[in-house]
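Lesson 9: reading folded outputs for more than one chain in a single document. The general rule is that every protein is listed as its sequence immediately followed by its structure tokens, and records are never interleaved. Here is the first one.
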Amino acid sequence: MESIVTQLMAVERKPASLLEAATTTMKSQLSTYGQLQSYVSALQDKSRAMASTTLWSQTVATSSDATVASVTTGTNTAAGSYSLTVSQLAVAQTASSTAVPAKTHNVGQGKLTIELGSWTGDPATFGLKAGASSVTVDIGEGESSLAAVRDKINAAGAGVVATVIYDATGARLSIRSTDTGVANGFRISAEETAPGDDGASLSMFAFDPASGSGGMTENMKAQDAKAKLNGLDITSASNTLSDVADGLTIKLLKKSESPIDLSVAQDTESMKTAVNDFVKAYNDLSSFIQTQTKYNADSKTAGKLQGDRTVIGLQAQMREIIRGVNSSPKTLRTLSDAGIEVQKDGYTIAVNSKKLNAALADPAEMKKLMMSGDSANESTWGLISRFNSMATNALAAEGPLTTRQEGIQASIKRNNDRVADMEVRLAATEERIRKQYQTLDSNMAKLSALNSYVSTQLSSLG
């Protein structure tokens, strides 16, 4: 009876099994769509990089002696060459106090007033820096150790940095301007309210060469950087020259006895990298689609997305754009002209280095070929911008990839709901069949007993 019930239920369960098999297939398709989405997203990223306004105007700078000066470029830097001579580096003013036994030594209480400005002339006179104001640092009880004075000065934001330095005679306070340049020197005055230990007082931190007062010794005089760029005198408070040419930043590192050369050229290596990255992203997506939509005659198996109209439509768009034409450039009209060529298999592309190098000799033409043109004239649209638009639309919230995945998910839910309903009916069917066969089994047992009785009686009569 159990064997009969099992076989009958297998027949009854066949529609549910078919739905479960279909659900498994759809789950596999959904997973494949997730992979497809990641490949499309990668193509979108690489397309955006190639359609960037900065890529095709990007420059790179080199220095003939990187120990003298380093150079970097910005988005508006024009190609060119420069001659640079560095006669003086910008220096920050530095002064140090007399030594005390240790950083915990009590140096007294009172006030320190710090002013930023420039020291000029001989004898030196001090001129306040435009826009700067004096900063007063209060040194109270419990704040009078050398280390505490250092911390109070640093917390005041007065445009100087204080440090405790140790030598054979003890601990000294070294004060240095935060910024380099003549205009960033400093003057310090002291007002004492309580003396420190062993004759120490806040006057040991005063610095004023004009009045001849104070206990600080100047170790470095503030000075501006001086250089010649293409024969023109350049003076800067900083060793970084950022406004001497459009988008060009020069960092002075040491003095030079003879001129060095700085050159600015188009950054073709970055452009080549962007092209190769795009080609890889295109091939990854195209090969994935090719694999998932083809039929393998040898194994008699079909790809998970074979016949999927959404994917086939995406593949058709890719092929149309890769063979497209842009009428804006004068010399480069197709991606093939720029060295991006369709291969014999029909679905992958490769870089022709010779053609790409020739095309990169005119980045402006490459920019026209790749980037969007007149929005009202489709023939002028940049070819890579078209890929970016295609990928963006495909990945949009209401785009074909998202819509297709939502459709598959809805079908899976419907199948699961139908199987759940069938399981309820199948359980009732199995219960009914079992009752019928149990009744039949009981009746068969009774008939068997009756048969045995009749046989016995007949035997006795004989």
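And here is the second record, again sequence then tokens.
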Amino acid sequence: MGWLIDLLPLSYTDAVVVIGAAILGLTSGVLGSFAVLRERSLVGDAIAHAALPGVCIAFLLTGAKDAGSLIVGAAFAGIAAAVLMVAIERTSRIRPDAAIGVVLSCFFSLGIVLLTYISSQNNANQAGLEKYLFGQAAGLLERDLVVMAALAGASLLFVAIGFRILKVALFDADFAGSLGLPVRVLDVAMTVLLVVAVVIGVRMVGAILMVAMLISPVVAARQLTHRLRTLLPLAGVIGAGIGIAGALLATGSELPTGPVVVVVGFCVALAAVLLSPGRGALWRARHVAAERRRAAFEGVLLEVETAMHAGPPPTVAELRLATGRPRAQLTRTLRRLERAGLLRRDGAEHRLRLTEAGAAAAHELEQRRDLWAAWLEHGASLELPDAREPDPRDVRASLGDDVADRLQELAT
């Protein structure tokens, strides 16, 4: 690991922190995906909190702050918490969220009690154990990176080898059981992977904040892809990027690394939720707004044509009274129709009249709506070569001229 530290143009401490944050982000992104996709994200939170008493018990047994023994203690405590949650859920009438809450609060309280007891023993070796609450990335050493990299490499190799089996058990446990796969063993394996991610990161970001590293990269990646084969490496890359960016920002501003990494992860996840193409909240809001403008555009166009056939061309006030549309929406839509060359205003009263292009557009729109109505009424009786659902806005383009002509014949 020394060669990698030497490659980075940073001081020894900063280079170790950056590499550790990258390992943590990569592992958390990949392994946290299984918890998020199983809708068991809070299990990771409970396991992270359960790591604290494991660290304390390992210290009491060994009397030293050896990274290896503390990690083993955290791992055993995490596995014990996971087993206890499953046992409470399956052998009682307690719901899963309540079981998680009980185990989380119990183990974390035990950890606080043990920390208080250790600090009262006046043991010089105990200094720094409380950093497992919020993490202490600056205390990482090269040997810690070796342990983290070994655990990360083993877990990622396991995921790569068992990807197909894990995928089946993840999305359809009943089908996996019908194939003879050991579903419960695979469920335990995915939980153990979660424990591995926790013990890798609890030293850096702490027991309280570790759950954010398990969720943030997956949330961001999930907004960008819908395939597990792409999601896992993408979540790992995003997690590594979050870790590196947070570590560099923290070292440059002399802020605690763990909280800064978590804040960066939150910002990345929030940006993905808001801005991701096709799924982002802002993209969807923009799409909905565009659909509403389109519907208003077409609706007002037809309403003007209907009013013209019923009597003299209407004024804006008469059209608003007849349609009940809000004044602001009607005004904006009429301006758009005018800019499109589909509408003009005549006379001193500025009566609304469709242009030749507007009349043609209204006629085409009526035909499309009539075709959609004919599809809803007679579509089930048609024999199509494949199972297709037409676009309500353009049945002819989506089903073809032959099917559209048959629909028109059935409707007449």
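What the second record shows: The domain at 283-354 is CATH 1.10.10.10 (Arc Repressor Mutant, subunit A).
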